[in-house]
Design a protein that fits this description.
The protein has about 170 residues and is α+β, with helices and mostly antiparallel strands. It has one domain. The strands form two sheets. Strands 1, 2, 3, 4, 5, 6, 7, 8 and 11 form a nine-stranded mixed β-sheet that branches. The longest helix has 14 residues. The two termini are about 25 Å apart.
C-alpha cells in the first residue's frame, strides 16, 4: 500500500516503472460508464489529462442538481517522465443552473491547488409499492475522483504529486 496524503501518493518500492504512455492508458482505464466522473485528453488545456465530474452529462446533471451542487472542480494532470511523477492541480468552478441545466464558469475566487470536499444527500419518493422510500443516495467526495487516479499512477511505479502553487 502506498503512502497517501492530500498532496501525493508514492508507489511501493518494488513496483516496476512503466512508460508515460502506459501511465496515461492506465489512468484512462479508470473511466467507466457508471462513474459520476470522466477522464479526458487535456492537450487543449496544455496538460496531458483532465479528470472531472460528469456534471454537464445529461445522465448525471439531474442528480448533481438535486444535490444542490454549487461548486465543482477539475483535476489537471501533467506527466513528468524524467521524475516518473504525475503532477495534479485542482481548479474550482462555480456551477450555474439555468432551467435545470448546469453551466460551468471559473470560480470568482479562482481556487487552484489541492482540496478535499464531500457533497452528499438522498432523495425520497413514492416507490412502485405506493410507499415512501429512498430512491437514490449519492456521495460526491473528491477522494472518489482522486483515489482511483492515484492508485492507477502508483500501480505504474510513478508518484502522484498534488501541486498547490506554481506550474504543473
Amino acid at each position: 500500500m502506498g503512502v497517501f496524503n492530500l498532496f501525493g501518493k508514492k508507489p511501493d518500492k518494488n513496483t516496476p516503472v512503466l512508460s508515460a504512455e502506459q501511465v496515461i492508458q492506465r489512468i484512462l482505464e479508470v473511466n467507466r460508464d457508471t462513474a459520476p466522473f470522466k477522464i479526458v485528453d487535456g492537450k487543449s488545456e496544455g496538460v496531458d489529462l483532465i479528470a472531472e465530474w460528469k456534471i454537464v452529462d445529461a445522465k448525471w446533471y439531474e442528480i448533481f442538481a438535486k444535490a444542490n451542487l454549487t461548486k465543482t472542480f477539475r483535476i489537471y494532470l501533467k506527466l513528468d517522465p524524467a521524475k516518473n511523477e504525475v503532477r495534479a492541480k485542482d481548479q474550482e468552478y462555480t456551477v450555474e443552473w439555468r432551467a435545470g441545466v448546469p453551466g460551468l464558469k471559473a470560480a470568482v475566487s479562482s481556487f487552484q491547488g489541492q482540496q478535499t470536499s464531500i457533497e452528499f444527500g438522498a432523495a425520497y419518493a413514492f416507490t412502485e409499492e405506493g410507499k415512501a422510500g429512498e430512491v437514490y443516495k449519492y456521495r460526491f467526495s473528491t477522494n472518489e475522483l482522486k483515489k482511483p487516479i492515484q492508485d492507477a499512477v502508483t500501480a505504474c511505479g510513478w508518484k502522484y504529486k498534488g501541486v498547490a502553487f506554481g506550474k504543473l
